[in-house]
């Protein structure tokens, strides 16, 4: 935790940087001083071997090669001939019997070989190169290993198209290639964009190899030409991994995590969202006690929201009391208790016996990090397991290689904002490339934030396996039910979707224990041959497993541009519209309640249906659901165990495989075979009902279960009441077949068949119409109007077209018949709509629904969109601070009305002061900032005095601008804390929307407290 500070100035930043330079070993200092020239290893002067260990002398320097497996070996260099091993047994695990190797000498080199690879050691000078058994070169040194007094460097040739990934958690990057970039691997305590918490001294190459530097020292990897990898110590110690086949990158991650430890399997409650705060003598919340955590837990229950665990002492100086009673109370609310280890790990045994099941590390990782961080992770993990039957479950913001086997890595303490969302998206998928299977950040940070950024951040983090919300540091608590409607309902929707997806996520968690590959993946991992996957085209999206593509909204907007879909068929999760990749989607309609989310053709997703709040809500007779997007042959293996204990390590678990056969495209039969569940564990269901959702786009003629017909039900209501049967729902996501069974024994396989239906996308792909709603449409509260809807017929004529709007209670919506729309053409249709008189100004999510007939089927196309509900335009002169703000984004904390920018709370700023003059009215912001208001065309001028508030004492540098309906009307010169006040007088006649913007101009954002003093609209 870091306490907030008011003095965000250049001086403060400089002091922090200076402190960091002294506090962090190695830091980001240059690898080599100018007066410390490097020495490069010379010619080979001697050679010997013992079994599979080979030694090469080059004067005093000695290199040693040790094979670990047929595709993994260790290369060491001791410049003085003496080998050391500072990591000992800390990181690298015992690997069993070494492989058979052979060697031979040629005129210019030695060759050391297994059945899979050959390492060449050239003699003059000593240089290494790695080849596969088929002669393919994986890497080659451009010169010999070199060293200075405190560094060692390897230089490798870079391939023409070679891409690089890894280095652990690299904030703001990592899911796209590091090629051409310099990457630092060290403890830096920089938890913002550009920092590198949870660094890992490992990288992998698209050429099919990976490198792990076995060290606790900082590293610098420069992926230029040549690639130089430098470690801040005068010893060289690296393991190399040769990947196999088309999934070489996954294989390399697997070899690396076999060496350093597979990711742990969290308890199932660990995959539910967690909540953290200090509940004892909290300075930010007033006097309270540990048992008060139960009142917050009650909030999750009352709002029907999942929550798996609570840290009850998360804050500096926060202790605890009544621990066992608190744990018991949380258990009654289906939650586990966690503790922040501010007081170290000495008491963990008694804490665990009192009910602790989560350990968030602090004292165990501060200090010099590295070994201390890894030891803290292992000790806390063991502390839970040695004193209970639970699984170890820890969290840390500064870890090191090997920590993947004992904890979650989270990116530290940040402030919620749109920028926070943006840079976190590439961070966690990129971390997977280093074997970190569980990485995350606090929902909307621990400072700042807003209702909108909270919703947007929570949405996409529900597609990470783990996450947490942190309270007590912001101005008000940040549980997902604190902001009221519509935010509470949207947050509940995504929390419950995550809960429903736990069988899918848990199966991938188990897969990580076998392969080292986590569920959250960059596109480059699954689509290594796609040239765009390594580029910024895929930077702000990721995959969850193979099946979900997530493209978060990271700006204050209701549309998302630049969504890249790789090769294959992708289905919009919400509308059912299908896309053929590779393609890029611009203008995707994403109102606040809609996360851009796509599902891969061929996906079979196991789910828990029913909107449960906790895994404990599952009963012996609870159903298992399969959400299936049939295309070709596909399968998924469900993994299950008791979810809590460690008995799975002794074989107490079960697997059940789903195999789907369908046409590759178009019409045909679909079959789903659910195999027998293999294995046993306490609580395993001996029988259970199944529910299936099959995204076909066309109704089948018949549905059979093991050759016997299931009854066809004629309505959704009839389907929901029935114990078994099927129903084709044309109105659900382009048309889905819903099937439910009576309870079936889990030790027996069964097969479901759908006759005369289709693969995902329909029997005639592209036949269905699509719907789009032009962005930017507005209506006034209580004012009748019309909404434009664009309907595009597919490859077949759309007939009997009718367009309706699904509107909230209190609104009045009409319907418009559009007749026939010829194939491939678009028609704009206007639908009458009157918002409720008490509709809140701002964004209102609605659904446009187009019912039509095409290719012989009754079809429905839907599109979620945002309508702007406008406040009443001013009819007289109005202060900007008294108007409704349609948009309010701010660089730090909330923008302030009639005060200067403060901390993370509303109205905690000071009096507005510019050049010694105080102002009663105005707006206080922090760059970068946007305030949007609605003059509605009724105002003529906007006036203000602008500058950086006097409280900053001369620091800061910004520029102000006034924009109207997308056009820049006025821009200030650069303004510093020492500048004179700048008067503003702008003609805004006819402007409906006005944005007041402040941008940082020097890149530091230190002291950018900008004031729109006396900001006023002159209105008729």
TrEMBL record:
InterPro entries: A-galactase_NEW3 (IPR018905), DUF5110 (IPR033403), Gal_mutarotase_sf_dom (IPR011013), Galactose-bd-like_sf (IPR008979), GH (IPR017853), Glyco_hyd_98_carb-bd (IPR013222), Glyco_hydro_31_C (IPR048395), Glyco_hydro_31_N_dom (IPR025887)
Domain Glycosyl hydrolase family 98 putative carbohydrate-binding module: residue ranges: 874-1019
UniProt keyword annotations, A-Z: Glycosidase, Hydrolase, Signal
Keyword Membrane attributed: no
Hydrolase in keyword set: yes
Extent of the signal sequence: 1-23
Origin: domain of life: Bacteria
Transmembrane annotation, as ranges: none
Protein family per UniProt: Belongs to the glycosyl hydrolase 31 family.
Protein name listed in UniProt: NPCBM/NEW2 domain-containing protein
